[in-house]
Amino acid sequence: MSFLLDSGVSKPIIFNFFNLKDQLSIHQTEINHIQGLGTDAPVESLRSTNNTIIIGEAVNLNQDLFAIIDASINFVPSLGIPIHGIIGYDIFKDFVVEVNYSRKFIKLYNPQFYSSKFSNKCRQLPLSFNNKKPLIEAAVSINKLEIPVNLLIDTGGSDALWLFEDSTQSITIPDNTYDDFLGKGLSGTIFGKRAELESFRLSDFKLKNVNVAFPDALSIQKEKIHALRNGSLMGGVLHRFNWVFNYKSQWVAFKKNNYFNKPFRYNKSGIVMQYAGVRSVKTFLGIPDEISPNTNSQSSNTIRFSSSYGFEIVPELVILEIRPSSPADLAGLKTEDIVLSIFKLIDTSKSDRTVLWSRWETHQNDCGTRWRTYEISI
Fold first, then answer.
1. Structural contact between residues 210 and 199, judged by C-beta atoms closer than 8 angstroms
2. For residue 247, what is the DSSP state?
3. pTM for the model
4. Residue ranges of domains in the chain, CATH in brackets
5. Are 365 and 318 in contact (CB under 8 A)?
6. What is the pLDDT of residues 279-327, one digit of tens each?
7. For the chain, which has fewer Cβ within 10 Å, the N-terminal or C-terminal residue?
């Protein structure tokens, strides 16, 4: 099984396990409910104790976990790879965990034998905990004012930064924002506003023009948010550093990597897609059969092509969300459209290779089949 390593969860949660080739046995179960982010009701699950989990050479013989039976709770369409669950605190509490984003590996160390000798490029900060979730001190700049914040380290989130609006601490939503789909939690869809921070500081490392999202109150009201927590530090910032987490000694060490100066990107089209299986595509194979040279300098050579076709299996992408008033919305794209192809025209005269427009070919099944082509200026 494949798990997301998510420092934002206290107990392992498994889902999407109905099509496993091997039998999955969970022990000593009882009905339970899990409340996650989103506006929907808590999700029914089976709470199970006394399970065995093996990760590499690490073995836990007495693992508690939650199993979600609802097949609609599934992150595969969003991520495009098989994911059967999320695991967090139970890994971090028993090991020193090294997460190296630049070299793409995770290492687990026995805390008794771990030597914490870091180079002068590393910084070390204390960790505090609430409900088994790690909090770290940082600072954000809003309206030219630097504000200290306590952030949940959330390795399972793909955004850069979430902040909770709080006028008493001067954490206010900037003027230049737009409403957007932020993602899906265990308890439904999360919406909010997106903006850009002047800067974000972690120790003496400073990032400028940082993406930030402000989830709306309805999406987070059912989640028990600690009073001193001001938001979440997520993958869009985390991957710019390499990390060592030591929960037992309550500290985290980090140093910037080659992603540090990578610019923050925005979804300018307004389209959120998800994986929806595979489809068979008929492809024209333009293979030249014969090239006939022409001795006349005023004429071109003759190339004859065979009319042969091939079939290939490709991923099928479906539009999950369209941001209101976005270029995609104004062009007429709809949710549940199947994306057939995407072309983009690039202005090569500019150093940043600006995308002038994208052409999306889609097809939608409702009261029949319609094929449509759109040009979206982004």
1. yes
2. T
3. 0.79
4. 3-88 (no CATH), 98-256 (2.40.70.10), 271-281+310-376 (no CATH)
5. no
6. 777 776 665 555 555 555 555 556 555 567 778 787 788 888 888 888 8
7. N
